[in-house]
Amino acid sequence: MEEEIRRAILSHADFTGIPRESMLEKALFACDELAGFLTACSYVKPNRSIHEVDAKSVRKKLKDKAFARSVNRDDITNGARELGVELDQHIEFCIEAMKQRAAELGLAGTQQAGAAS
Description:
single chain; mainly alpha; 6 helices; 59% helix; globular
């Protein structure tokens, strides 16, 4: 298992030359840049919460090259492609996953306005 994890870490950066072959390797690559981008999207919402982020607003922000400019947009689109899923589906999946861990990620927001209890 250690070797599988080590390889996934190495393969998620293109400059290492390690091709992504396993689903773990592809998933790590696909989620890395997107998780950072979703975090940035959360921070600009009124309550600084992942619960306020949706795929439509993320797609709009992806087009704004000045927003979170250090995030590699090609890695986000290529990651979804390598997983074999549509970009919107991948974005929605990652948003939902991050919502499940919002408090741990510091993305629960400043208030839970509109959140279901």
